[in-house]
């Protein structure tokens, strides 16, 4: 089974820096598992790894997707698995670096996306229902799916009902998948004191504004038609909607990005601690190198 090192953790904790160090030490190549750094022209708000930071290490799935084209977990799964295959063929170590948990799980586990035909009339009907009515419908036909879907998450409620309508419930489909890794994966998670992490996040947001974030977002997204793009939904971009509508000042936008980033970091921790068998370290923990080294030697 091919070995894959996955460096995970919340936004702003130092995953990129560690991934470069690991790649240099173990002849690795890096695959980004960041749902935003994949977009072209979106450099500042995504804290995209720069050419200087890459230090000549090959990077995959960074700056490859036009920002006006949708990107999703199914596309990532396919491209990430292709990249792992390319890297292992050249006897290099694939290092996945990123904090988008669902992307990582889809690529590294037996996560299957079923093709189903959408029924436009049924979808239109679902959109006419209130959240409460959607929950009631799901309660009747797939109550188990409600254990994982928040009653206010309209998008996921509709998605689960669409899946049921296509012939099989969402929970049954997931139950058939064993959720075992396709690879020999070492999940290396970075953790630190929450107050310290929040300070790092705040400093990074301040730095983005100094680097020209307002200009970047204005150039790409000042036209309201672009607000429907998948790329605009990312933290660091979507908060500007109120500014464009003259309802928020730049300082308010900045504070909202900081707040949203801190909340996202909390959600990332929750995801990784419940979904994957992660080995947690502080960013400068001296145990990282010997422990990864020991894992790399296993099975040789």
Automatic annotation (TrEMBL):
Listed GO MF terms: tRNA dimethylallyltransferase activity
Keyword line: ATP-binding, Magnesium, Nucleotide-binding, Transferase, tRNA processing
Annotated positions binding substrate: 11-16
Residues flagged as site, Interaction with substrate tRNA: 100
Top-level EC class: transferase
EC number: 2.5.1.75
Positions of ATP binding: 9-16
Coiled coil: none
InterPro entries assigned to the protein according to its UniProt record, in alphabetical order: Dimethylallyltransferase (IPR039657), IPT (IPR018022), P-loop_NTPase (IPR027417)
Region listing for Interaction with substrate tRNA, in residue ranges: 34-37
Reaction catalysed by this enzyme: adenosine(37) in tRNA + dimethylallyl diphosphate = N(6)-dimethylallyladenosine(37) in tRNA + diphosphate
Names of the cofactor(s): Mg(2+)
Assigned protein family: Belongs to the IPP transferase family.
NCBIfam families: miaA
Cited function: Catalyzes the transfer of a dimethylallyl group onto the adenine at position 37 in tRNAs that read codons beginning with uridine, leading to the formation of N6-(dimethylallyl)adenosine (i(6)A).
Subunit structure: Monomer.
Protein name: tRNA dimethylallyltransferase
Taxonomic source organism: Absicoccus intestinalis
Gene: miaA
């Amino acid at each position: 089974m091919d070995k894959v090192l996955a460096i995970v953790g919340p936004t702003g904790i130092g995953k990129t820096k560690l991934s470069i160090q690991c790649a240099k030490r173990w002849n690795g190549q890096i695959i980004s598992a960041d749902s935003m750094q994949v977009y072209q022209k979106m450099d500042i708000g995504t804290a995209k790894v720069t050419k200087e930071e890459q230090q000549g290490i090959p990077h995959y799935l960074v700056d490859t997707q036009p920002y006006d084209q949708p990107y999703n977990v199914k596309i990532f799964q396919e491209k990430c698995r292709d990249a792992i295959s390319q890297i292992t063929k050249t006897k290099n170590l694939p290092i996945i670096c990123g904090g988008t948990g669902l992307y990582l799980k889809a690529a590294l586990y037996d996560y299957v996306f079923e093709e189903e035909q959408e029924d436009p009339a049924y979808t239109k009907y679902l959109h006419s229902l209130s959240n409460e009515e959607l929950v009631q419908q799901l309660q009747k036909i797939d109550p188990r799916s409600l254990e994982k879907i928040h009653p206010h998450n309209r998008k996921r409620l509709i998605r689960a009902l669409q899946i049921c309508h296509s012939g099989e419930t969402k929970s049954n489909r997931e139950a058939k998948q064993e959720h075992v890794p396709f690879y020999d994966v070492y999940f290396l998670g970075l953790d630190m004191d929450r107050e310290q992490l929040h300070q790092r996040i705040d400093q990074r947001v301040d730095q983005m504004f100094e680097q020209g974030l307002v200009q970047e977002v204005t150039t790409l997204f000042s036209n309201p038609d672009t607000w429907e793009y998948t790329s605009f939904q990312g933290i660091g971009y979507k908060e500007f909607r109120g500014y464009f509508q003259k309802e928020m000042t730049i300082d308010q936008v900045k504070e909202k990005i900081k707040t949203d980033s801190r909340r996202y970091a909390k959600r990332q921790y929750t995801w990784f601690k419940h979904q994957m068998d992660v080995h947690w370290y502080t960013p400068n923990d001296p145990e990282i190198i010997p422990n990864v080294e020991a894992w790399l030697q296993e099975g040789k």
